[in-house]
Design brief:
By secondary structure, the protein is α/β, with parallel strands linked by helices. About 30% of the residues lie in helices and about 15% in strands.
Length: about 400
Amino acid sequence: MKRNPLTARRGATVGLAIASIAVLTACGTQSGGTGGGEAAEELGEMEGQVSILAWPGYVEDGSNDPAVDWVSSFEEETGCEVESKTYGTSDEAVNLMKSGDYDVVAASGDATLRLIAAGDVAPVNTDLIPNYDGIYDFLKDKEWNSVDGESYGVPHGYGANLLMYNTEVVTEAPTSWDVVFDRASEFSGKVTAYDSPIYIADAAVYLMAHQPELGIENPYALDEEQFQAAVDLLKEQRQHVGEYWSDYLKEIQAFQTGDSVVGTTWQVIQNVLESEGASTAVVLPEEGATGWSDTWMISSDAANPNCAYAWLNHIASPEANAAATSYFGEAPSNDAACEFREDCEAYHAGDADYASQIWYWTTPIAECVDGRTDVECVDYAAWTEAWQEIKG
């Protein structure tokens, strides 16, 4: 394969460090928090540099491939020299942001609320980001990127955690997640699932449809009874799982060899398998699915806030957003980005109805993100502990 920036995006929340658990436990008993500092009212002169923390493949300057570069144009236009560092998990990003060494971070929804609650990122004034107007409305002002009506960043790319199946083995095209839950025994040993505590939300999405009496309204807002039901479902599934995956290359290989025949996946994985002639297909099941929407955020201690705002505006531009999300393998967030991409249809870019079926990763906290105030929800630290029990 030519490149694989997703390879380093291994289990966005696997292997939580002790320090990270302590921080999340502390903020998990509160609301999303108020973040650090206040949103800028106006911009000043560019500082000449900006430090960016991001997923691999999000900040490319042509050093690895001259044809892949959306940093040089930013540096030329603004005079802000980019220094970037990549990270491999959301937990790593959360811990690195505590250093105060970075002006900007690209964070997934399983990290954003932690960053806000810890005061490590500041609200942003979207009026100072002209390209924000072009972002799809269905990605703005959501519970993973906004708190109390304040925006904490600019949406980047997004995608769904889809159901993939081997068409030669799963001969009747599935329309439900039941093939990996209630019907998992039919494919025992060859079911695959995403290796992360956040996968508990996938079970919750299934239960929302099949056990409505549980009253689940949001898969990231689970009280003790709802949470236990999701954990029990995953423990039942465990006996049929042949492999949990976090490295997308390993999932590709598992479907190529037949070791996996059904389970969670990403559209980019299907694209690779399809290009190599594999007998696989993907579907967004009738229950809906979990997914991700990453957000560009500004540090509350940013040493270069003007260049930071300039970067958020640049990466949200149609050209840069198209290049970055295409390279990474996800749908763009800018409505005009598809003018610079040829694969938007495969990612259902801009399809609001499709997007409405995705439950984007959101950090579970004790104050239920579904708005309930008469009960306490299970926070992410407990999700992490339960995940280890599920896997055994």
